[in-house]
Amino acid sequence: MDPAIVIDVAHLGKTFGSVTAIEDVSFTVHAGEIFGLLGPNGAGKSTTLRILITVLPPSSGTATVLGHDVLTEADTVRSLIGYVPQERAVDRFLTGREHLELLGGLYHLSRTETNARIDELLKLVNLEEHADRVAKTYSGGMKRKLDIACGLLPHPKIVFLDEPTLGLDVQSRLRIWDYIRQLREQGITIVMTTNYLEEADQLCDRLAIIDGGTIRVIGSPLELKTGLGGDSLSLTIKDHETEKLPRLREGVMALPLVRDVRINPTGLDVLVESPEKSLSAVIEVAQRLDCSLDGIEYHRPRLDDVFVAHTGHGLRGGTPDAAEE
Amino acid sequence: MTFQHYRQEVLALTMRWVRRLSREKFSMLFTLVQPMLFWLIFFGSLFQRAANIQILDAPNYMSFLAGGVVVMTVLNNGLAGGVDLLFDKENGFLERMMSTPIHRSSVILSRYLFVMAITGMQILVILSIAFVFGVRLETGLPGIAVILAIGMLFGVGLTAISMGIAFSVKSHGDFFSLLGFLSLPMIFLSSALVPLSAMPGWMQVVAMVNPMTWVIDAVRPLIITGWDAAIPQVALAFVILAVFDAVCLYGGAKAFRRAIG
Predict the structure, then answer these.
(1) What is the pLDDT of residues B32-57, one digit of tens each?
(2) Chain B residues near residue A87 by CB distance under 8 angstroms
(3) What does the H/E/C string look like for A232-297?
(4) Torsion angle in degrees (nearest 10) through CA of A74, A76, A78, A80
């Protein structure tokens, strides 16, 4: 096994009766990265995650976590991972501290170990002041923080987060992103599901776009976006100078960072590798060839475009019932 | 998986149920008081004069009813025993617990321990209230121990049924309708409120296959008659309960395994 691979999923399938939830799902997760499963509701993200955390047995295929099979070595897997569920899975009648104490017992930590860990985690998620209040008085964001603290209690090597910021306000969402990045800095591998494009783009080192129970594409957000053709510059030239366009095209084409140039009725579309560097070079060429530009527009493909390109529909419009939930 | 680990898990989980109960003081009070107030005191006083002592074969209706109320309490606690796990299943707490390296059975065992402890306490409170109302146990303190043992044994099977239903139903709405459908007929079609001999023929037949009847018929002589009459009934009840528990535990375990995977 490649030491850098901490999760290896091969041809995983799960059916519920006659319904196929996921089919032939394969991917690997590398140590220390934030890996995202991006897709609409019902795409199979949670099913995949629940198989990995050993609460759902797969119908076909295999999955190993840190080299241990999720089916035959479930107990070992469970002792190595942390899980932050999608629902606000808190007991309304227990205090934050009592949640963590309960989990300390379930992970077989000693009392002193549990208490030390609890103090540490309460500080991390800023819940110290509210630790001894029952959870029914908590806001959505506070419940989420408690969820995350619970997931981190056993010092996991891998943390699984199911829709970590679902239904949170912007501020809470940013704070949660911050925690997740902090975890990565500590060397913890993160596997998370999300149906927010922005979240996947900002947070994940690599992601798998999953739709209709199968994986459509895997890569880093940048790779995926570049895969669509990269960034582009649109030059608009002054009306009376359109005859200069072929010459300008040749000049721009010769630049090192330019991948392709096409002529359109009002100017040029330039596909570039790095817009920051190529922009000045392109302007310089235009000046040298004495072309007066009306304007330059710069386009960067968004993850939305990637999603549409690989699934044939937008993330929100794809599943009608997703919008109702 | 060591025994120390198992004990630690079960203890932590049981502690959770205790803490929850302590947070719901209001509901705890009603759970404890309701069967005594409603059945023993109201029902007992209401039928005191209407009930025929000859048919009851007891000094008064209250002492006849005490055994029935004890078993009814076991029934209600047992059948409601799975509710909390149902809520855990619905809000994802169960999944969180199942993602930890615990033995799958410790969740179930913690629930049994908790339900049994509460039921035991309630039985003691009911017998004390009955004592205040003049009911004297013919078999004394050892009789109380036997009543507790019978109650626990019956409660195990009932809790298994409740958890089995909790793990099988789609929603808690289904659970509560099923529960309501089960519990009242179990009480009325048993010897809890009147002796079998006072029932119409068809009801007697139904009551005879109701395990409630056999359990009550073992508890009642311990309260109103004495050891001689009680021992054969108690022995019979133990046999019936062994079979009842075996069937319920098998069914409950099957439902649990199907739900947990």
Answers:
(1) 777 667 778 877 877 777 777 767 77
(2) 91-92
(3) EEEEEECHHHHHHHHHHHHHHHCCCCEEEEEEECCEEEEEECCHHHHHHHHHHHHHHCCCCEEEEE
(4) -150
DSSP codes joined into one string, A107-147 = TT--HHHHHHHHHHHHHHTT-GGGTTSBGGG--HHHHHHHH
Q: Could you tell me if B159 and B112 are in contact, meaning their C-beta atoms sit under 8 angstroms apart? A: yes
**Alpha helices, DSSP H, located in B24-168:** 25-34, 44-47, 53-56, 61-80, 83-91, 93-98, 105-132, 140-168
Q: Which pLDDT score, from 0 to 100, does residue A320 have?
A: 39
Which residues 6+ apart lie within 8 Å of A10 measured at CB?
A26, A61, A62, A63
Q: Which position has the token pair 């007066």?
A: A292
Residue with token string 């109380």: B144
- Look-up of token digits 């208490």: A115
The answer to whether the predicted template modeling score (pTM) of the entire model surpasses 0.95 is: no
What ipTM does the predicted assembly reach? Answer: 0.87
**From CA B6, how far away is CA B11, in angstroms rounded?**
8
Q: Which of A47, A50, A3, A59 is nearest to A28 (CA)?
A: A3
Cβ partners under 8 Å of residue A287, min gap 6: none
Residue A90: closest CA among B170, B97, B15: B97
Residue A164: φ, ψ to 5°: -60, -25
Write out chain B residues lying below 8 Å of A105, CB-based: 8-9, 11-13, 15
Within 61-100 of A, beta carbons closer than 8 Å to B belong to: 75-76, 78-79, 81, 83, 85-91, 93-94, 98
- Tell me the C-alpha to C-alpha distance, in Å, between residue A45 and each of A90, A145, B71: 22, 22, 48
**Every domain of chain B and the residues it spans:** 3-260
Domains assigned to chain A? 5-225 (3.40.50.300), 230-300 (3.30.70.100)
**A291-318: pLDDT as tens digits:** 888 888 887 777 887 888 788 777 764 4
Hey, are the CB atoms on A108 and B5 less than 8 Å from each other?
Answer: yes
pLDDT at residue A188, rounded to an integer: 95
Q: What is the separation, in whole angstroms, between the first and last Cα of chain B? A: 19
Cα A158 to Cα B80, B94, B96, B231, B258: the distances in Å are 38, 20, 15, 60, 28
In terms of Cα–Cα distance, which of B161, B169, B177 is closest to B86?
A: B169
Collapsing DSSP to helix, strand or coil, B224 comes out as: helix
State the nearest Cα–Cα gap between B139 and chain A, in angstroms: 41
Sequence-distant (6+) residues with CB within 8 A of B165 are B82, B175, B178, B179, B255
β-pair type (A68-69, A231-237):
unpaired
Report, as ranges of residue numbers, the positions in chain A whose pLDDT lies below 50.
Answer: 1, 317-325
Q: Do A55 and B98 make contact, defined as CB atoms within 8 angstroms?
A: yes
What does DSSP say about strands A81-84 and A231-237: parallel, antiparallel, or unpaired? unpaired
- pLDDT mean over B239-255: 95
